[in-house]
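Tip: read the tokens left to right.
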């Protein structure tokens, strides 16, 4: 997915989430984004660039580039930072909070994106995706402090996710887990300066939080897929 596609997806997702922020919050966001928009208009800009690198396959080998890491820059907000800190702090309080962590991070991010859009700061939602060499670059970023949030998913299938036809017929809408993805998040506070390049390092050792995104289907669909597979065999 290109940076433009990532930005468009973020805008569409934010627009789809219903209610607008309360008036006081909208006014606060407008005040917050004003300096960034002024820097954008006056071309007081910098760049952010770096690489996403995994652990070497051998002890003596070179780090392995990671393609497909989504990188998002959002104007710095102490409130958003505190919410993300809270998710990490309570990550392992109980199984439920661990399972819900990914959805909570997505909720914080999309809510903030929606508030930025409502405050006229849609141009400040900056996204990019690392290429095959692990390189990522965001050009023309207004000066100031930013929240960098990056993530990648490692999908896994779940074997045996089938429901007996009799049970599926009686309860066709039972949710059945069909897979999951381990989601690795990176997070940093970046300070962009005029005409300078701010370095960004995304490594396996620097992962901020690892969460899980589960994939579900209903029992009728799972049973149908299992029957289709038997027929092909």
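Filled-in amino acids:
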């Amino acid at each position: 997915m290109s940076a433009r596609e990532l930005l468009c997806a973020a805008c569409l997702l934010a627009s789809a989430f219903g209610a607008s922020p309360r008036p006081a919050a909208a006014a606060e966001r407008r005040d917050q984004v004003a300096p960034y928009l002024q820097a954008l208009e006056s071309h007081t800009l910098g760049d952010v660039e770096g690489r996403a690198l995994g652990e070497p396959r051998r002890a003596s080998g070179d780090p392995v580039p990671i393609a497909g890491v989504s990188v998002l820059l959002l104007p710095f907000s102490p409130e958003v930072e505190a919410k993300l800190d809270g998710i990490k702090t309570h990550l392992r309080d109980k199984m439920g909070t661990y399972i819900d962590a990914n959805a909570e991070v997505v909720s914080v991010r999309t809510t903030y994106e929606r508030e930025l859009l409502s405050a006229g700061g849609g141009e400040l939602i900056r996204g990019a995706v690392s290429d095959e060499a692990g390189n990522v670059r965001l050009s023309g970023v207004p000066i100031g402090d930013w929240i960098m949030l990056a993530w990648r998913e490692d999908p896994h299938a779940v074997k045996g996710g089938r429901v007996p036809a009799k049970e599926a017929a009686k309860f066709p809408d039972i949710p059945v887990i069909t897979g999951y993805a381990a989601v690795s998040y990176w997070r940093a506070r970046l300070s962009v300066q005029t005409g300078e390049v701010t370095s960004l390092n995304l490594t396996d050792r620097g992962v901020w939080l690892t969460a899980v995104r589960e994939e579900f289907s209903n029992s009728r669909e799972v049973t149908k897929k299992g029957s289709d597979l038997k027929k092909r065999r």
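The chain has one domain: 3-161+179-216. Residues 76 and 146 are 4 Å apart (CA to CA).
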